[in-house]
Write a structure and sequence with these properties.
The complex is a heterodimer of chains A (about 325) and B (about 300). Chain A has helices at about 5-10, 25-60, 75-80, 85-115, 125-130, 140-150, 155-160, 175-200, 205-215, 220-230, 230-245, 250-260, 270-280, 285-319; strands at about 60-65, 70. With about 325 residues, chain A is mainly α. The longest helix of chain A is centred in the first third of the chain and has 36 residues, at about 25-60. Helix content of chain B is about 70%, strand content about 0%. Chain B contains 16 helices and no strands. The longest helix of chain B has about 35 residues, at about 90-125. The chains are: A mainly alpha (about 325), B mainly alpha (about 300). Chains A and B meet through helix 2, helix 4, helix 5, helix 6 and helix 8 of A and helix 1, helix 2, helix 3, helix 5 and helix 6 of B.
Chain lengths: ~325, ~300
């Protein structure tokens, strides 16, 4: 409302010139923009930046029975980096990331490409049914799979015995990580598929027409047109998966109820930090574990992005 | 590092923006029987666990452990199970459902509003510092939220906010991914000339946002709303550490508590069928929301695919 006089001064003729502004109009728009982003950044700073800084601050202190909180420098970090429980947990989530994420994303990509080709009957129903587990809370998914894995009454064990295969031990020490990978895949294949599918649907038609003139088949079309075109979306799903797998918490936390001897309290770093903070009351040490975990996630995400950027540059250099 | 983020995001935005040319070739030309069969077999993997949950919620506790899991057996006890579920511990299950509804809807509305305003500003205003702020937002997508939960808990307990609904709602208001989605979506759906025209007509910036911007952002709003809704609805870690009173629990923490009680026995074996029926009931609202709103969120995710 208030910006209109300035604009009329700016336009002596009737022809609108939307790109030019007087400085007052521009300043008003800047002010409006700042007011638009302000609420988000107030919450952003109080709920993300402050806790992050506070976590870093806490991790530098030590709580002693006598003397209370004392500055400890990097002692908590030294302890964490030599703590076999933390390192083993980190190793587990790293293994989880290396094994589960490629399988999950490859399947999600396969489904997205298959549905995008419209070669299957009932594509729409298939898409919704694969996506449905995403609407199931991780708690319910883990409870449910916990029953399904059950060695006595679980339907998988029932069927395996009926086929004479013996009873599979899903909750044993060797298999528990694989069982968790299966739960997480079940929950998130559909979610990743939808992100990739949405990206596939937005590929401009010119790209297809060029390939079709070349007489490319479906597989070549997928490999040399579709996958390169949705690379940013794939990168996004990889980054989300880095975060998701390194901060694994719900599944170990709930499975530790039914398999307490296998899912120990340091099974994943996040579960360890939770137990340290709320069971052992070692807040400062827990903060340093949480902070270290954040650093590891940032580094892995960075390496993923960097290798993608390198690959892009290399391909540009080749062409 | 942050510059890489922006680059990746901008590429997504460009691809979405370049979609305008509609695909011309007819996709229904050739069906493949093999692909159809393979995909439907894969669908079984995603559906059978939920089928098991449905079947199991109709069984009483003894049938649960004596009949084949994937088919009905024993007496049909769905109604008895539901009755037990809604009366156990003075009907606390209903209380948990209501809590979940309140937390999820308030958080999702708030998160959507904040993300939309910020995303709109990033897409439609070229203001000093916008690049740095947007990069910071994208960088935050990488911060593991559960790593923040512990310091947030300590700060909230100093402010006396733990064990209140705010402890669950306020941290859920931040949705960096929502800001990113709304920026991409706004850039595509709201035409600059419309904003300029409204300015010439003398509308203030806030009025332009409410009356011009929001009207065009429908599918994007639904998408961000649904994703925030799911994030809060499914959240377990945050309410677990923030809340101590059973009456304040959302369904996720409540079910986990019931399950722990059932596993430890406690003389009440009937709890297993209660937990299973509760799990089944708790997933119905979200599944329905996704089914009924699919037109909106799917087009929202495809950033304006319906308007092509």
């Amino acid at each position: 409302m208030s910006s209109s006089p300035a604009l009329t001064v700016e336009r002596p003729s009737a022809v609108p010139q939307p790109t030019r502004h007087t400085s007052t109009a521009k300043r008003k728009q800047n002010l409006a923009a700042y007011l638009f982003v302000l609420p988000f950044f107030v919450v952003f700073i109080t709920m993300l930046v402050v806790p992050l800084v506070y976590s870093g601050y806490l991790s530098l202190f030590e709580s002693k029975l006598i003397g209370g909180e004392t500055f400890a420098g990097l002692a908590n970090y030294v302890r964490a980096l030599t703590d076999p429980a933390f390192l083993a947990g980190l190793g587990r989530v790293a293994l989880f990331f290396v094994v589960q994420v490629p399988i999950m994303l490859a399947l999600a990509l396969f489904f997205a490409l298959a549905l995008d080709s419209f070669r299957a009957r009932g594509s729409k129903a298939i898409r919704l049914l694969i996506y449905m587990p995403y609407a199931v809370p991780a708690v319910v998914a883990t409870l449910m799979w916990g029953y399904l894995y059950g060695p006595d009454f679980g339907p998988i064990a029932q069927m395996a015995r009926a086929l004479g295969l013996g009873t599979p031990e899903f909750l044993s020490a060797e298999n528990i990580l694989g069982s968790m990978m299966n739960i997480v895949s079940w929950e998130f294949i559909g979610y990743n598929m939808i992100i990739m599918y949405a990206a596939l649907r937005s590929i401009p038609s010119e790209l297809y027409e060029a390939a079709e003139i070349d007489g490319a088949g479906q597989f070549r079309l997928a490999w040399s047109v579709k996958i390169p075109a949705i690379r940013p979306a794939i990168l996004l799903t990889v980054i989300f998966s880095v975060i998701g797998s390194f901060q694994l918490f719900n599944e170990p936390s709930l499975l530790s109820v039914i398999a307490p001897n296998v899912v120990i309290n340091s099974f994943t770093p996040n579960f360890y930090a939770y137990n340290l903070a709320f069971v052992n009351q070692e807040l400062n040490y827990a903060a340093s574990i949480a902070f270290l975990l954040g650093i590891v996630i940032a580094i892995v995400s960075y390496v993923v992005q960097l290798s993608e950027q390198r690959r892009e540059r290399r391909e540009r250099g080749l062409s | 590092m942050t510059s890489i983020d922006t680059r990746a995001a901008v590429t997504v935005g460009d691809v979405a923006g370049a979609r305008r040319a509609r695909r011309r070739y007819a996709p229904e030309r050739r069906r493949s029987l093999l692909l159809t069969v393979i995909l439907w077999i894969c669908v079984l993997y995603f559906v059978l666990p939920l089928w098991w949950l449905l079947v199991s919620s109709t069984k009483d506790n003894s049938a649960l452990f004596s009949t084949f899991g994937l088919w009905f057996g024993g007496d049909f006890s769905l109604w008895e199970n539901l009755q037990t579920l809604f009366t156990v511990r003075d009907g606390i299950f209903l209380r948990w459902m209501i809590n979940t509804f309140v937390y999820a809807i308030v958080s999702a509305l708030g998160a959507t509003l904040l993300a939309t305003m910020a995303g709109y500003a990033f897409a439609k205003y070229d203001f000093p510092g916008s690049k740095a702020l947007f990069s910071a937002t994208l960088g935050a997508v990488m911060i593991p939220l559960t790593a923040l939960a512990l310091p947030t808990y300590l700060l909230f307990s100093q402010a006396g906010l733990t064990d209140t609904p705010w402890a669950v709602i306020i941290p859920s208001l931040v949705s960096p991914f929502g800001v990113y989605l709304m920026r991409v979506y706004t850039a595509d759906a709201v035409d600059d000339s419309l904003i300029e025209a409204a300015r010439v007509d003398g509308a203030g910036e806030a009025r332009i946002f409410w009356q011009v911007g929001l009207r065009l952002l429908g599918p994007g709003l639904v998408t961000v709303f649904l994703f925030s809704l799911v994030a809060t609805w499914n959240n377990y870690f945050l309410p677990l550490i923030m809340l101590n009173t059973s009456d304040l629990y959302p369904i996720t923490v409540g079910l986990a508590q019931l399950q722990a009680a059932a596993t430890q026995g406690g003389g009440s074996q009937a709890l297993f069928s209660t937990v299973i029926t509760g799990s089944f009931v708790s997933i119905i609202p979200l599944v329905l929301a996704f089914l009924f709103l699919q037109r909106y969120w799917q087009s929202g995710l495809a950033t304006g695919g319906v308007k092509g």
